[in-house]
Amino acid sequence: MDYFRNILGAPQGEMQATSGADTVERLCERVSSSTLLDDRRDAVRALKALSKKFRLEVGTQAMDILINVLEQDRNDAEIISYALDTFYHVMSNEPSDDDDSTPMNSSLGCEFTEIFIKRSENVTLLLTFLEEYDFHVRWPTVKLLTVLLSNKQKELQEIILVVPMGVSRLMDLLSDSREIIRNDALLNQLTKGHGNIQKIVAFENAFERIIDIIKEEGATDGGIVVEDCLLLLQNLLRNNTSNQNFFKEGSYIQKLKPFFIIDDEYAASRQGGWSAQKVTNMHLMLQLVRTLVSPNNPQNQTVACQKVMNHCGLLQDLCSILMATGVPADVLTETINTVSEVIRGSQPNQEYFASVLAPSNPPRPAIVVLLMSMVNEKQPFVLRCAVLYCFQSFLYKNEVSQSQIIQTLLPTAADANSITAGQLLCGGLFNVDPLSNWFSAVALLHAIVENPTQKEQLLRVQLATSLGNPPVSLLQQCCNMLSQGGKVQTKIALLMILCGWLADCPIAVSHFLSNTANVPYLISQVSSSEADDHEVIVQGLCAFLLGICMLYNNDTTEAFTKSALKQVIQNRIGLESFTDKLIQVAQNENYTRAAKKPHLYHKHPNEIVFDYEFTRLFKMLENEVLKAVSGTGSVNGRLPGGPGIEHYKTLLKEQEDQVLALRRNLEEMQAFSSSSEKTVAELTVQVQQLKDQNALLKAQKATQGTPPPAGPNSSSGEEVEALRRELDAMRLQLKDKDAQLVSMSSIKNNADATESPSSQHNGSSPELDHHVSDNVRLQELERS
């Protein structure tokens, strides 16, 4: 054959494609026309063999025929298996094992999937095959449904949702004793991103079944099956308050506790450390706990789950993992993040965490050990971020712990050799490592945030500089370090803590202004015209700090009273330049990213710029600062806030009231219009009845006028007179009805015009036309 191809000049690839298409066409004809089941089975088996290499041909020619096979030959498991496998090959985008050189068209499977699911009956048919226990039917069905979900997830989810018992049939797969069917990721695909399906699956006793499978497979020491089960649990619980509440009320949180118990003897026997699968499983376990106590969940839901985790001992087990030895770094990092969210905003949990001691000699509080890792530049970056998040969560809405941290900075009679949290933070704040500066500054900021008492206490902190020199205050040392320059990250960190410290603390502002070098430095920074992105942030933060000094100024420093600062800003910087620098802070991409979530989702140290709590402070005071500096709350109408906001709120309220009033008027006019239409319809019926009576009278007169006249003149005159009277009476009745119809038509037109002013009602009513023509006929009758 190759010899003839070379002679005829036909390319081998084209001949092969043509031959393949012809073969598929003949096989399709054989399937549709054969009466013997064996012949159809052989043809479908041949189509299956060709379906990988000739996806397009098989998909376009054989789809409807194979659907008929599924419907008509469902009693034969072998032909059903061949047909399902053929569909799987056509719609799957996996590369073919037979011919790796043939490029795969990734969109082809999605197109065939769209065609297949366009008829929802096809999906229903597949779901019925799940009731078959035969492996050769159920397994190909599971594979095909998985491919369909991966290609058209949303569309197929909606179809399965409305199929009776559709989700229940899929849930039965968890009870299948054959692991290859039970362990398939079909339910993961089905539940992803669809709240209603997640709820149905949860109420099909999914939590109980999944946790049982995890136990049977060895919990965190299990294999890929445990991983799939944990992913499924996360799908069911993430952003689904109903399922989270069901999980909590069903005591499933308590059933997670055994999974976090680390066997020290087992860990010691494993010289090579944790396996990769165990690390993955533990990571997913921890993420599952975080899903239940995420700050994004409703607060009451998070608080309830935090309470359960403390009571059942899950928090204690998590803290044990923190202090354990031999735990991989990434598992330790995720454990720190998990503990952070379990204790965040929960006073009992925070108190327990404060009591946890590390197994060291002498024993130290766990928070101190964690801070030692945070200020150590040799530790992994993500681990240091996790420790900062844990420290922030420990102090969140916890004034007692805030006070205890500040007390460790003050002079006490405690053992001088002991390491305290305050010492670690001060050491990190003035370290040569910019990242340690940023972490320590943000940690100190959280120790005084929304706590004016601790801000005043922090003013008492004195630092020893060198031998023979007097100590300096922490505030002054921060200002000195800021004026010395250094890395941009360090400057941003110092400016954030100074802004948080001085905000809502006039005494701290007075201390800051008492150093005459501070204000000139800030003015020089704000007046600078450097265009680097990070320098723009520094300039904006300096402007914000100047505004805070003016906003919370008690005028105790004569050189820098509120009015003096205002004049300096207006004369040396300019209101427009000051506003530009301040607004650019909130417009920065790093600010927007930090303002979304309290957790630090950073992969590289250079990405760290702003802190979440600082963004909240900036958002709260930005408008107040501009009002204090400009005196009006806006500069050139560029700041949305102050009186303008109240004005727009009032205007919006008035417009809403007007819209409501117009809606009520429209409803009244629509009701009146409906009533008018009903009345017009009743009058139309009455007019039609009169017309019928008139026609009947005409017929009666016509039949009565035929007898031979005995006295032609007298009888004819009487009949004419009688007809004339009847015509007059009919004419009066018609005039009355015409007047009524005209009146009602005008009312209806007015109502229509009110309801839709743009539409004009042209032309007369059909009922009026009928009456005009009726008058004409009466006149003709009168003349006759």
What would your notes on this structure say?
By secondary structure, the protein is mostly helical. It has a domain at 461-630: Alpha Horseshoe (Leucine-rich Repeat Variant). 71% of the residues lie in helices and 1% in strands. The chain contains 41 helices and 4 strands. The strands form 2 sheets. It has a two-stranded antiparallel sheet with strand order 1-2. A two-stranded antiparallel sheet has the order 3-4. Strand 3 (462-463) and strand 4 (472-473) form a beta hairpin. Helix 2 (12-33) packs parallel to helix 4, helix 19 (276-292) runs parallel beside helix 22 and helix 24 crosses helix 25 (381-395). The longest helix is centred in the last third of the chain and has 62 residues, at 643-704. The radius of gyration is 42 Å and the shape is flat. The relative contact order is 0.03. Residues 1-17, 99-103, 633-644, 706-715 and 755-768 have low confidence and may be disordered.
Distance between the termini: 101 Å
Q: How is the CATH topology of the domain at 461-630 named?
A: Leucine-rich Repeat Variant
Q: Briefly, what CATH class of the domain at 461-630? A: Mainly Alpha
Which sheet architecture does the biggest sheet show? Answer: 2 strands, antiparallel
Largest sheet: spatial strand order: 1-2
Number of helical elements: 41
**What is the averaged pLDDT score?**
82
Region (Disordered): 699-721, 738-784
Domain Vesicle tethering protein Uso1/P115-like head: 348-629
Organism: Elysia chlorotica
Protein name: Vesicle tethering protein Uso1/P115-like head domain-containing protein
